[in-house]
Amino acid sequence: NKLKKYREKQKSIEERNLSKLQEQDKRKNMNLFRYLDQKENFKREKMFYKKFTDKILSKHQMISQIAQKEKERENVIQELRRKNEQVIKNDGSLLVTNYFDSYLELQTQNPKTK
Predict the structure, then answer these.
(1) Where are the coiled-coil regions (predicted)?
(2) For 17-28, what is the mean pLDDT?
């Protein structure tokens, strides 16, 4: 009789241990799934922000290139105006027309970007 009670007790202890282990496994699996899901979400967010920042950077680059070209054009125009004023002071009307022609040629080569 004692032996029977002992076996039942052992069996119930084993069942409890087994159920505890199964519960632990379930928790581990849930944590693993949660971790993998978070990792996947993080990857998606990272890709989204990378695309977003790439777009911003490319637009910024385009804007800075346009600004650089505009600045170069403005510098050339200023240089032509300076030369034109210098020529007017020297009273060389033929040279004035030459500089004005080169200015017009420059305008046709580099039309203002919108």
Answers:
(1) 59-90
(2) 94
Count other C-beta atoms under 10 Å from residue 35's C-beta: 10
On whether the CB atoms of residues 80 and 103 are closer than 8 A, the answer is yes
Closest CA to 99 of 111, 88, 108: 88
Are 95 and 80 in contact, with CB atoms under 8 Å apart?
no
- The pLDDT of residue 96 is above 90: no
Closest CA to 113 of 49, 65, 59: 65
DSSP 112: P
Q: What are the residue boundaries of the structural domains of the chain, listed by start?
A: 2-109
Query: Given a cut of 60, is residue 102 above it in pLDDT?
Result: yes
